[in-house]
Amino acid sequence: MITGPNISGKAALVTGSSRGIGRAIAQRLAAAGATVVVTARSLDKEAGETRVGAHKVVPGTLAETVKLIEDAGGRAIPVGCDLENADERESLVDRAVAEVGRLDILVNNAGFCDFAPVADMPMDVFDRTFDHYVRAPFALTKAAIPQMRAAGAGWIVNITSAQALPVRRPFPDYLAVSGDTVYSAAKAAVNRFTQGLAAELLASNIAVNAVGPSTAIRTPGADDYIPGEYPTEDVAYLAETVLAMSHLPANERTGLIAHSMHFPWHYHIDVRSLDGKDILPRTEPPAWSNPEISPSGE
């Protein structure tokens, strides 16, 4: 039995869903009734990459994500894709539609970051950062629009970050050493892309929104960048916020830049566990979250 928003009969594509935030989003959408196409490089074997100056293998596979969803009673289909490979990227939407027959929801979640000050950042790191956060969402969205227009509705959710928001003066001390300038610029581009695209697609009843953590979410991919003592949040709040962006008509909810703890709190949305069975505690946004966050997303 589905409780909360019911998106049965819808098909979703979630990038970067072999672990972390993408996996959680896929689980929550599946629990709400969607058939979810999960995609990443790691189909049934963990993928490696070079970050923070070293090569490492990051835990998580699509096979594991599919099993979690199926064990909870949902349906997921794995489609391998390296978003840095132009051919694989350009064909991903068509391959997803071939598997499920339609595409109603697109979640652009996959990412790459390797923090370094601009003066020290290799050009390939800059390129890979913008490939993942700007080029790939553009390409996938462009391919998804005809499918959604043909269906008469659609929902696009881009995963953003509070680091994309304006910086107050005096500058916080961490900005001088964090090395997150390029990452934050890419996420700021995601926000503006989201709002402009929302305006372009409103008449087609395609909602476009962005969702990011209110603070930080500890995942296998992000663990290198989050201090061990930093208080992180439950990924279920972000997954629920994505679900909230994936079912209302565009004229009711589009063009928002929402954050995981703030949005459900502001709109009194019940946040459920990733399998949809349990309601989590109503939790006020932490005092240490970015003061530039708009609780309403507007």
TrEMBL record:
Transmembrane segments: none annotated. InterPro entries: KR_dom, NAD(P)-bd_dom_sf, Sc_DH/Rdtase_CS, SDR, SDR_fam. Residues 10-214 form the Ketoreductase domain. One of its GO terms (biological process) is monocarboxylic acid metabolic process. It holds the Pfam family adh_short. Belongs to the short-chain dehydrogenases/reductases (SDR) family. This is Ketoreductase domain-containing protein. It comes from Sphingobium quisquiliarum P25.
